[in-house]
Amino acid sequence: MLSKAKFTAVLAIIAGMFPNAHGELESDTPFQLLIATILSAQATDKGVNKATPKLFASYPDAETLAIADIADVESKIRTIGLYKTKAKNIVRTAQMLITDFGGELPHDKDLLQKLPGVGRKTANVVLGDAFGIPGIAVDTHVERVSKRLQLVKQSATVLEVEDKLMKVVPEKDWVETHHRLIFFGRYHCTARNPKCQTCPVLPYCKFGEKLTHES
Ligand code: SF4
User: Fold this and answer.
1) Binding site members
2) For the chain, first and last CA: distance in Å?
3) Which residue out of 154, 189, 197 has the highest number of ligand 1 atoms within 8 Å of its CB and is therefore the one to mutate?
4) Using alpha carbons only, how large is the chain's radius of gyration in Å?
5) Which residues does the annotation place in the binding site for [4Fe-4S] cluster?
6) NCBIfam families in the record, alphabetically (predicted)?
7) Residue positions annotated with a catalytic role
8) What is the DSSP string of 46-60?
9) For residue 4, what are the CA distances in angstroms to 11, 58, 140, 164?
């Protein structure tokens, strides 16, 4: 397993590679970020960004989306995987925001997770990016990179990855670190064909060493 000191050194290298890592979902308000993040489950940010301008032009806020016709919402997001379920979830989310939360997004992880389609990862993304509340959202990239670097054991759950990252990264750096790990996983340590041959992290990475020796 990678020690905290070595992981800190790795994070410094990754920070140098992606100093401006940031959330890539496009939105104008915390509400729109919440909706875009719900839509991004098992879909790419790029695909979501293609669909949301049309959706937000008709339904820019909770008030308008809460009374939307589901069929019309579906037609606007049908290019996104699982669009039927997601259409129901986002309309129901808007309705709950109006009825249970006075039309405002709760600034609380547990309350946010009461909304349909909102899991821990989505709640962390919205709290961090919309309100600056520290959290580490573990998506597929963060999980893969953490496991390849042996920060956690291969069988670790998403929650265990999140716990470990919160232990080894100072709280003030959680949101930034989450974005940097996502960029590193999305653009460098990709699921297929990671760029191990040119990876500055290779000296710390047994997975990469094995891959480079095999090739
Ligand atoms: Fe990822 Fe390869 Fe770099 Fe390891 S050496 S972090 S597997 S790109």
Assistant:
1) 189, 196, 199, 205
2) 24
3) 189
4) 19
5) 189, 196, 199, 205
6) nth
7) 121, 139
8) HHHHHHHHHHHHH--
9) 10, 48, 22, 10
- Mean pLDDT for 179-192 is 97
Rounded Cα–Cα distance for residues 177 and 31 (Å): 23
Q: Which residues line ligand 1 (CB under 6 A)?
A: 148-149, 188-189, 194-196, 199, 201-202, 205, 207-208
Distance 117 CA to ligand 1 centre (A): 32
Q: Which domains does the chain have, with CATH numbers?
A: 4-19+140-214 (1.10.1670.10), 30-131 (1.10.340.30)
Please provide the DSSP assignment of 24-93 as one string: ----SSHHHHHHHHHHTTTS-HHHHHHHHHHHHHH--SHHHHHT--HHHHHHHHTTSTTHHHHHHHHHHH
| Averaged pLDDT for residues 170-192 | 96
Give me ligand 1 centre to Cα 170, in Å: 23
Cα angle: 123, vertex 125, 126; to 5 degrees: 65
